[in-house]
């Protein structure tokens, strides 16, 4: 397909002869690819689909009539009339000889890996040798080489170069696919070897543990430590990664009912790639702290907001119960509060880490069982302002173009996002594009790793997003770079936007945002004139009191330049959790029913009342932070929240101003928590219901690219833990709802089909059977023959008039500014190895081994002023709380700022953050508050998560 024009181009056919029979190849294919399509088996070791062919192992040699030498079929293209023999005596002799020589250099007695005496088969090399009936002759076996010692320095991977055939697949995996540039090929001749950085141990190198090299290695020279020894597994189960919103397809390898390793699959979002979390963060599901029995709070045990115990030792606070007792107590108490205090007395937090079906059923339970719209989830804490602006401007809260579409872009603007840490596989597509010449512009107060690949870096002052973006828009208009035709045909309110940015020239904004005026103008010109300019953003844009205005500016920037509605352009808010897009689509938000239909729209309200056969509230419910406020409201308030049902969320760690949030949770009359671990939130519960981890359920999730994808159950839940879908239905029954979802896996297909009817305008053509068959389907998809639309807004926007609405924005300062008492700015966020509140990743052995303790990041200049060095302890204090933790030097963090990840309960960053809300998206201002920093302090002990109490370890400098 010609992506720019949207027309199908039929590839040229090449007719030639393969092993005496006519075959057809297509332009761009190699002989090996054609042979694979026609069932002709040719060995190969240095080649793997998706990677650049190298032709260095020589095991795929074929004979071509009229040519003196054999040719490597992996990197030789056929031409018309060519006669190729893959099975001739000469070709077979060469193929077998190469396999035998490589095999003869392998360890013959097996490796002894960490006490494992099993013989290690040499992966693809052994497989091809077996298929080609190749054995090593004694004369060759007698020739031995000095074998290099194994390198076991990395927590996740073992390096055994005595099995290395120097095929360079690992080099291509690291440098060309993931673009991490850690693995190289060094020295010459007999001494040539694969090395990590400057011949460091793998564990001491800059490796980010994506594991691409392990998946690429054909011999076992690089292996996951969890899968050393015999490679046979009991079963392989295809599923989806449970972490970020990229939605990588993967395969769980299960042996003795334990996931022993994970492989990337060729899904449309990842094409076999994974990151450290997806590949090595799987064993949380087997952690000994898994909840396996329903728990009920012991009589007389108070809820103390300052007391969160060891999750491995809950017996003094809770007692075990049967499912019937726990469900009856949970349901009856919620029902009693509803019937006694009215329909506004209850609220529910659903989860973006579960399935679409769970999200849909949970919000339906709250609306039809609780009787209000007081239902929300983590989108309120990540992209609520982005969604508010997108719904207002373009009529849809989803992305206009998929991440991989950066392949067609001329310029990529990454703003308010750290993709190499938060969306690592998505970042690989950006880095791949940069290597091909696409210009990346990084705009962020912090210079992160993607900056190494950037054409221009705009390190603007924190909180000056609108100033910078309006300056870019002003430049486009001032220099006559607008797409006048696009604005005339497809935009509204342009004149108001134009008038508003008159005072935002690059020269006027340069002193405010800290970027030279000429740099602003240079970037604006390139953005406007490139063949396609695409904006990808994260929570650095959304988590401000002006987050909606930030996103409005991004919409305006692509609109005035006409950079939307075509490949390689448009708007992409990178979604945080694995199903935050799907959970939002399914209606897990307080002002919207499924598919973003307003609860206060009379027609929508009537349709859902009829569809669900239940009376519904026609007023928007409260959001996450508002619910916490209402939990602390006086008894006289008729809308006081008295009971909550929380599924898979951890507001005692994720909410801003945690002291306030924890006080609110302990003030509830009744709290039901459904989770897989004793989270910080679960400590405040009256009933704790043990649920299913992602590898233990079947269901769909929707990734950041609008792809509905199938996850399949690989394991049974431990003990008496139950599927989330079953638990929701049991609670519904005790609230008086008559549901009947029949079928395997708790009726998941029936729930999906009901959800599809509720969202018919976008997923009408995505049936359950189709997702099962295709594994990944892009929406909007209005018929079963519709392949889906990876690029939307090509001809019209989803607004009422079909035009993009341009909304002017002015500078609104952060709610809390630095002053003499609190002179630093706190920026919070995620890091590569840990996710959200850490309840899963800190129980994943590899991830916890790589990043075991909380650290703050500051630049070297600020460290010197404080008189501290990397690894020292500092105390960070705001007007709401304080934490003590080790400090790490990071010169990408701007002067006057400190960055703290929020995954560590012992140094919870959200004890410090400000609960001030964006007035439109109702999102808290996580990305900006004033703090004071002093040297020294006593870090909280790291008890819990199965580890002993320890003193704080020094941070990695």
What do these coordinates show?
With 957 residues, this protein is α/β, with parallel strands linked by helices. It folds into 4 domains: 1-87, Ubiquitin-like (UB roll) (Roll), CATH 3.10.20.740; 305-378 and 579-790, 3-Layer(aba) Sandwich (Rossmann fold), CATH 3.40.50; 383-573, Dimethylsulfoxide Reductase, domain 2 (3-Layer(aba) Sandwich), CATH 3.40.228; 824-935, Barwin-like endoglucanases (Beta Barrel). Helices cover 28% and strands 17% of the residues. The chain is built from 30 helices and 39 strands. Strands 14-13-27-26-25-15-16 form a 7-stranded mixed β-sheet, sandwiched between helices. The chain has a 6-stranded mixed β-sheet with strand order 33-35-34-39-32-36. A hairpin with a 6-residue loop joins strand 37 (914-917) and strand 38. Helix 8 (323-341) crosses helix 25 (724-734) and helix 16 (506-513) crosses helix 17. The radius of gyration is 29 Å and the shape is globular. 56% of the residues are buried. Mean pLDDT is 93; it is low at 1-8, 110-120 and 948-957. One of its GO terms (cellular component) is oxidoreductase complex. Residues 234-289 form the 4Fe-4S Mo/W bis-MGD-type domain. In the C-terminal section; belongs to the prokaryotic molybdopterin-containing oxidoreductase family. One of its GO terms (biological process) is ATP synthesis coupled electron transport. One of its GO terms (molecular function) is NADH dehydrogenase activity.
